[in-house]
């Protein structure tokens, strides 16, 4: 029988909290940027201009067909050196966090765009017609009338996607970036208590995500009511 | 004010409008009626360019609707439209429904737009509902708000697409009263409706459509007294007997 020893956890809490801040930071940026860029992609996808619509379809198709961990690795390998060249930064500058945020935002935008596309299509055509009849341009009608309703209809799905994204941020361990999962792994490795630390980290993810899912369910009930 | 010349439109094989021509002078009220599927709604949606058409010409207040390069948004800002399903924006308060296009399309200041909106809500008897959301109003109230929303842009003419068809019977009159008031004030109106009482009261002419064609067009009294075509006679006997 394995002999559990949880004693390394209390002392590691400040370090783990630093990691949690990285995880939450990546999540926040990726959700905000992902929804914004995803909404632009969704609008492009529904555009009557064929080239615009094809570009969006291609983008979404590409990012939905490759594993997230691969996208992350590409970005860790390419973006930092690219940014260093462009911005003439020193090699000491740590760009792993920035590249992780960019990678997640671009990747998640593909998923958010599909959610927003469904949201846009859930708003009745009459609403757009009424906005156009008032003299709004198609983009004004989209921005002032269709998107706010699409966003509200899709809010539960957008939040659920954010919860999945939070879990997926653990994949940044491939770059040795100390997010919550990475921090837990490091502590466990150092103290020879990997099993305990990973069980603990798993429990934290479980509690946070279950609580968030529960909150989304409450919200959904209120939105639908 | 509005001139429709020989307009054709089809969805694939199905011809929805054929050889439609009608003229509306300033201050006139035209009622368009006919059986469902006869193309009435499509015709008035062509007038403000919400529906494209293949052939023919529509000119509204000097602007050619179907021509490439016509700024349709600018034209639509001057042509009010009221829909069967009201189409108020549910995520905005009533007052914001009335101000948004004034501010975003006409570039009016918020205060000016608000003053105009409240005056119009007053006119349709709903000023005290300004801060509610559309979902809190009855159908009749929503349609009156929708009319006020269109009027807020000071349109040169108004199009009504079956404005009372989605209403419970007891709410029809409150909407028709507003429309009668508008007509008496000299608004140019094209109204698709089955409300023949409204037609008799304020319409200068009645246009009767069937299967995408304008079958009959006559001064109101004449249309009701002696319709020239069998189709119109049959239609009238159906809608008037109840």
Helical residues, percent of chain B? 25-40%
The biggest sheet of chain B amounts to: 6 strands, mixed
SSE string of chain B, helix = H, strand = E?
Answer: EEEHEEHEHHHEHEHEEHH
Amino- and carboxy-terminal Cα gap of chain A? 52 Å
Structural shape of chain A: globular
What profile does the largest beta sheet of chain A have? none
Helix content of chain A: over 70%
Mean pLDDT across residues of chain B: 93
User: Poorly predicted ranges of chain A (pLDDT <50, ≥5 residues)?
Assistant: none
* Beta-strand proportion of chain B: 25-35%
Q: Provide the spatial order of strands within the biggest beta sheet of chain B.
A: 6-7-8-3-9-10
Question: Beta-strand level of the residues of chain A, as a percent range?
Answer: under 5%
Integer average pLDDT of chain A: 91
Number of helices of chain A: 8
Name the descriptors:
heterodimer, A: 225 residues, mainly alpha, 8 helices, globular, B: 242 residues, alpha/beta, six-stranded mixed sheet, four-stranded antiparallel sheet, 9 helices, 10 strands
Question: What can you see in these coordinates?
Answer:
The complex is a heterodimer of chains A (225) and B (242). The longest helix of chain A is centred in the first third of the chain and has 38 residues, at 8-45. Chain A has eight helices and no strands. Helices cover 82% and strands 0% of the residues of chain A. Chain B is α/β, with parallel strands linked by helices and 242 residues long. Chain B has helices spanning 40-47, 72-76, 94-104, 110-123, 139-151, 169-184, 196-202, 220-225, 230-240; strands at residues 2-11, 14-24, 29-33, 55-60, 63-64, 79-82, 157-161, 188-192, 205-210, 213-219. In chain B, α6 links the parallel β7 (157-161) and β8 (188-192). The radius of gyration of chain B is 18 Å and the shape is globular. At the A-B interface, α5 and α6 of A face α2, β6 and α3 of B.
């Amino acid at each position: 029988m394995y002999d559990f020893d949880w004693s390394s956890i209390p002392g590691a809490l400040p370090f783990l909290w630093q990691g949690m801040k990285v995880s939450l930071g990546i999540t926040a940026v990726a959700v905000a940027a992902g929804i914004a860029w995803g909404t632009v992609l969704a609008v492009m996808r529904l555009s009557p201009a064929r080239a615009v619509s094809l570009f969006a379809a291609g983008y979404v198709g590409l990012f939905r067909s490759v594993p997230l961990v691969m996208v992350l690795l590409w970005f860790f390998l390419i973006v930092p050196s690219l940014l260093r060249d462009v911005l003439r930064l020193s090699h000491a500058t740590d760009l792993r966090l920035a590249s992780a945020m960019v990678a997640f935002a671009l990747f998640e935008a593909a998923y958010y765009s599909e959610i927003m596309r469904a949201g846009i299509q859930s708003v009745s055509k009459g609403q757009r017609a009424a906005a156009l009849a008032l003299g709004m341009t198609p983009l004004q009608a989209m921005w002032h009338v269709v998107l706010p309703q699409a966003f509200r209809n899709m809010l539960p799905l957008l939040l659920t996607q954010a919860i999945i994204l939070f879990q997926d941020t653990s994949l940044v361990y491939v770059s040795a970036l100390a997010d919550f999962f990475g921090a837990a792994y490091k502590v466990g490795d150092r103290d020879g208590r990997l099993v305990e630390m990973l069980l603990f980290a798993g429990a934290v993810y479980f509690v946070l995500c279950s609580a968030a899912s529960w909150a989304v369910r409450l919200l959904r009930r209120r939105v639908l009511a | 004010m509005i001139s429709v010349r020989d307009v054709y439109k089809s969805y694939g094989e199905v011809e929805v409008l054929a050889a439609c021509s009608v003229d509306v002078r300033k201050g006139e009220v035209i009622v368009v009626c006919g059986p469902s599927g006869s193309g009435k709604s499509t015709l008035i949606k062509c007038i403000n360019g919400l529906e494209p058409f293949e052939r023919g010409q529509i000119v509204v207040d000097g602007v050619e609707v179907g021509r490439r390069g016509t700024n349709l948004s600018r034209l639509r800002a001057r042509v009010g439209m009221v829909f069967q399903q009201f189409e108020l924006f549910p995520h905005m308060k009533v007052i914001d429904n009335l101000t948004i296009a004034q501010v975003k399309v006409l570039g009016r200041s918020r205060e000016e737009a608000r003053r105009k909106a409240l005056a119009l809500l007053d006119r349709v008897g709903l000023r005290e509902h300004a801060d509610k959301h559309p979902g809190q109003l009855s159908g009749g109230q929503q349609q009156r708000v929708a009319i006020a929303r269109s009027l807020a842009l000071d349109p040169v003419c108004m199009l009504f697409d079956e404005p009372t068809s989605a209403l419970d019977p007891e709410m029809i009159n409150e909407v028709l009263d507003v429309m009668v008031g508008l007509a008496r004030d000299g608004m140019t109106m094209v109204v698709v409706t089955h409300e023949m009482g409204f037609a008799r009261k304020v319409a200068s002419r009645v246009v009767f459509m069937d299967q995408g064609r304008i079958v009959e067009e006559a001064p109101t009294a004449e249309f009701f007294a002696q319709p020239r075509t069998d189709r119109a006679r049959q239609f009238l006997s159906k809608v008037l007997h109840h």
